[in-house]
Amino acid sequence: MSQTNRSLKSKTAVADSDDPVLQWVTFQLDEETYGINVMQVQEVLRHSEIAPVPGAPDYVLGIINLRGNVVTVIDTRTRFGLPSSEVNDNTRVVIIEADQQVIGILVDSVAEVVYLRSSEIDSAPNIGTEESARFIQGVSNRDGELLILVDLNKMLTEEEWGEVAQI
Amino acid sequence: MSFDLDEDILQDFLIEAGEILELLSGQLVELENDPDNRDLLNAIFRGFHTVKGGAGFLSLGHLIDTCHGAENVFDTLRNGGRELSSELMDVILQALDTINEQFAAVQAREEMQPADPELLAALTILSEPGTHMPGDSGAEVTQADEAEEVAESEAEKPTAISGEGGVDDITDEEFESLLDELHGVGGETASTPPAAAATPAAEQAAGSDNDEMSDEEFEALLDELQGVKPPAQPAQEPPAAPATPAAAAADGEMSDEEFEALLDELHGSQAPSSVQPATSEPTAKPAAKPEPKPAAAKPAAKPAAKPEPKPAPRPVAPPAETTVRVDTRRLDDIMNMVGELVLVRNRLLLLNSNFNDEELGKAISNLDVVTGDLQGSVMKTRMQPIKKVFGRFPRVVRDMARTLNKEITLELIGEDTDLDKNLVEALADPLVHLVRNSVDHGIEMPDERVKAGKPRMGVVTLAASQEGDHILLSIEDDGAGMDAEKLKGIAIKRGILDVDAAARMTDEEAYNLIFAAGFSTKEVISDVSGRGVGMDVVKTKINQLNGSVRIDSEMGRGTRLEIKVPLTLAILPTLMVRVGKQAFALPLATVNEIINLDLKLTNTVDGQLSMIVRDKAIPLFYLNLWLNKGNNPNFKRDEGHVVVVTLGTQQVGFVVDALVGQEEVVIKPLDRMLQGTPGMAGATITSDGGIALILDIPSLLKRYAKRSIKH
């Protein structure tokens, strides 16, 4: 693959070992900033060709070839009940590992890695659409900006259960 | 004994006991046909014994009880206390089923159910020697046996009362052996338990020896656990023990030695086996001699002598460990990586065709060969003999034949044919269905057979062989055969077929009707078959494996079913096609031919677009309409190629935009999120690094074809 892959996992934390600091990768989605646990992020890819899978659920964009592995990419906007947008230069596919599966999530852009103490995380107020609220683990106020922390395990599994139940 | 279930030990037990149980099922049926085979009898006895030992170590109470019952029966059998009968076999097989159930519960980490008390009672009754004994000395022997039995049951009384206590006298010894096995300790300790078992048993009443033994062993256990080599002294004890005449003790000891010997065999440990013959010989003989009645001594001595030859040849050629257990997931990983390598090679081959560099060409062709070899070798590691599946059939056929009052022999051919592990597992169910079918529908009742001038005994032949890159499995019976007209009649009655279609049908197509869902020739549904589900499932399953089924039948002579499956599921030859911008792979095995689309040859029949291919109308579908919804502005109906695929006896044409070529691909399963997407069997990386979806034709048709296609 010719993309510039940034391995975030290899970045070492500067925090003290006895200081419970968590690192979060932040990404933008429709003007909001979201954070996911850095330990669940494998890598960030530039947008490349995604092969659509006929008959797949609508939030599944398709599959990509990640160095010989087939990885499903889901459209995070659709997932969060947001309007879809055009792919541009900032669009990224974040490869995450959650619930023993590797999945790519399409986001508007990836910003940085932030350090948060556990005490800085608040429980989620009733924000966002109902769809997205289900995946939210908590929020954090950084310099007057709200960071929404996403629980990936829920994002990947809960819907599936819902679907199974519907059948 | 309350140990925490150590996961590792449990795993070892599950693997080993699982193998033994699998073997036992076959051995039992074999024994029924060959009741005088003492080796087999002993092997079965040891099998139950080993499982019991392992279960004892892990405190799996209910499992112990059942194994113990079965073991006792076989102990009686091999001592000549009872003759083998079908009724006895039924009980034993039932016990084996119970053991298997309990074993499955352990495997699933669930609470296991105690065995049916009736079954245990039946086992106990059967383990009492019967009154019939061949030979003049019958009465005497029986008496001695009974005495022995009493002594034994005396010792086992605590079992009934306390549930666990009585098992200990064996469990402890086995516990020891098991530890040896698990920790690979040297030979000295291995010979200790028999010594310990014999001495107190001789000196004291049989029932009271438990405490002492466990103390000694506990010491030994501690030594082992701490990695201390136990002193050599205990090893010299055994010769002293046998001096005391005690039939019961000798008996108990014997099984221990056998148990040891079995372990030796299983693990190829060298040290214990060299000690073994030395101890077992003096032990067994004196134990029998002082017995006042020579007649009684016989049965005791016989089994004693048996185990001797077994360990004897072993020390001559101490077998080095030549096998390794490997987690299948690891093999899957390797297979995956090799698959990756194959793809890279394909890519290099493609690139080189653009360069035409001779040096590069040489290197690549070298890589080509090595990769091919590597692929072959790795594939071989995943191969398993089909025996693993075939092994269960003697039992299946026997049970069914007994229920149906038929007389049937099962012949197995080519049991050693190797095929991919996944295939072996996947084929098990379809084969069971087909064999049951042959037994139930194929073979006639004995009287009918005689009337038809055939031998009473029906024959079902199960054969496997490798043919090129395929495995050919056949199930053949010499039964009544199938009546094509009758099949058509039933199909019409059940609304699967209309009269006109039936009239045009060839015999072979008619035979294929049995694979249709909801088709059953039986008027009455029995617990054996007749629900009309089985064959449908068989067909689907075999299609999933990219295999095919063919039926050949002759009235009055029998039916032959042939299943062809690819050697492996890991690598799939495909035809790569392009639909819109996307590449799709069609399993090559199903592709029949490729024709240029000619609209002049197409007609719309009953709302279904079809095409005449060699005077036969086949349904035609535009894949573009199915797989490329919404983004096909350049879609033209009159351009493209028709790929004709075969589904059973039915042919279907798919219109594709372009043909890419034939390519071997590694199937990558879709993520959990996409699994079960209709029509998609998986994905693969193409030789140009892109991604292609592999189509699952039957499910594709099911999902998209408006009119259901009969196949």
CATH architecture of chain A: Beta Barrel
Number of helices of chain A: 3
Query: Which structural class best describes the helix and strand composition of chain B?
Result: alpha+beta
Number of E strands of chain A? 11
Number of helices of chain B: 26
Q: pLDDT average of chain A, as an integer?
A: 76
Listing every helix as H and every strand as E from the N terminus to the C terminus, the arrangement of chain A reads EEEEEHEEEEHEEH
Q: Please bin the fraction of helical residues of chain A.
A: 10-25%
How large is the share of residues in beta strands of chain A?
A: 35-45%
Q: How far do the termini of chain B sit from each other?
A: 60 Å
Q: Roughly how much helix do the residues of chain B carry, as a percent range? A: 40-55%
pLDDT averaged residue by residue of chain B: 70
Query: What's the CATH H-level superfamily name of the largest domain in chain B?
Result: Histidine kinase-like ATPase, C-terminal domain
Number of structural domains of chain B: 5
Oligomeric state as shown: heterodimer
Largest sheet of chain B: 6 strands, mixed
